[in-house]
Amino acid sequence: MRICYFGTYEKSYPRNSVAIEGLRKNGAKVIECHSTLWESKEDKARLSAFGKALLIARLPFAYLSLAVKYLLCRKGGFDAMIVGYIGQTDMFLARMLAPRTTIIFNPMISLHDTLVNDRALVKNAFAARALHLLDSISCKLADLVVLDTEAHADYFRKEFGIKKVDVLPVGAEDSFLKAAAIWKDEGQSMQMQKKKVTKVLYYGKYTPLHGTRHVIEAAKLLERYPNIRLEIIGTGQTYSEDMKRAEQLKLKNTLFTDWVAYTSLPRKIADSDICLGGHFGTGEKALRVVPNKVFQMIALGKPVVVNDGATLKEEGFIDGINCITCPAGSPKAIAEAVLRLDNDAALRGSIGNGAKALFSKKYSSAAIGRSLLKQINTLKKRR
Q: Which of 68, 90, 91, 111 makes the best surface tag, with the fewest CB within 10 Å?
């Protein structure tokens, strides 16, 4: 099968890289028709006025480049086109260039839900309405829209009137599996040592749905246990506010790291004993999606703490079997979950094995690719 993966999508973002890797692992020929636009900044929503103006100025050139690349690579045709995340505006160009091609839109998020509801960065009513309209029209231009969970897909159906919606989990790339192999071969000896420190890892972009403040406050509750050390990695919208809270608490057991390269995350995860996956925010969006980091953590067979919402349960996460669950928004519950794992080595081991089994079954790139190819074949039979 010949597939065009199209747009200004972030090439390294898991939603795109896992899908592309998975399709190729299942024998599809994926031609990437890509123009760089979003990669230069981690938190796009926090661009300065100058940054936004520069982005808008670059857009016509990016689309001209895309159009030329598509015209050069379309010989022989495509069985399908996939428009990747972030792709709401890309959908218009995609449909213009390929009016008869089966197009799957892989948006990952609603711009309106993210910028207006979750992050509250857009407060102007006209701008909010424009984002809502952009989400709606871009989705309706596609033959199929794929979202990461059933709860998220249901939100799109109800909010935007989209009928052609299916579920495709995010998953994680093979690089995390390779790191797991390295950990098994090289890192296990460190676990065998009689070490007195339990390493707890959390990383994210400090947005409201992540609930990083709750992790920070949980860290304070864990200070009475000197063997537990936390590392919190990331920056983002709530970073300044959360750092002020950390300073107020005078944390002594937590290392704050602004950012690490994506390629370094597998080693960070491998070097941890317990991982905090979340989401720990209490907003609606936080409870309808599964964080990317959770798939990365379970790929390495790590015991992970996640929220106890219905979405995680629907996606196969079971407390005490392949994860530890706790209520979102509760530092006390997060701390108790960490202690539950810290106090029971056998439980850590069994949950880690259960997590790895869940990942292999549902969330590896090969599994994601199989699901996506099945969705494409189903669409083509209907046309």
A: 68
Q: Are residues 359 and 371 in the same domain?
A: no
Q: Which pLDDT tens digit goes with each residue over 89-101?
A: 999 999 999 999 9
Any residues with CB less than 8 A from the CB of 222 and at least 6 apart, and which? 200, 228, 230, 253, 335, 338, 339
Verify that 132 and 196 share a domain, yes or no.
Answer: no
Measured distance CA(303)–CA(344) in Å, rounded: 11
Residue 60 sits in the same domain as residue 181: no
Q: Summarize the confidence of residues 334-346 as an average pLDDT.
A: 97
Alpha helices in the chain (DSSP H): 14-25, 49-73, 90-97, 111-112, 125-140, 150-160, 174-182, 188-192, 212-221, 239-249, 265-270, 292-299, 310-314, 331-342, 345-358, 365-382
Q: How many residues does the chain have?
A: 383
Which pair of structure tokens corresponds to residue 57? 């100025």
Q: Which pLDDT value is given to residue 189?
A: 45
| 189 and 247 in a common domain | yes
User: What is the rounded radius of gyration, in angstroms, for the C-alpha atoms of the chain?
Assistant: 21
Q: Which of 313, 153, 155, 284 has the alpha carbon at shortest distance from 209? A: 284
Nearest 5°: the CA angle 107, 113, 119 is: 115
CATH code of the domain containing 136? 3.40.50.2000
Share of the chain above pLDDT 90, in %: 80
The CA distance from 251 to 220, in Å, is 6
Structural domains of the chain, count? 2
Spatial separation of the C-alpha atoms in residues 60 and 54, rounded to whole Å: 11
98-152 per-position pLDDT tens digit:
999 999 999 999 999 999 999 989 999 999 999 999 999 999 999 999 999 999 9
Please report the pLDDT score of residue 184 as a whole number. Answer: 54
* DSSP classification of residue 84: P
What percentage of residues in the chain have a pLDDT greater than 70?
A: 91
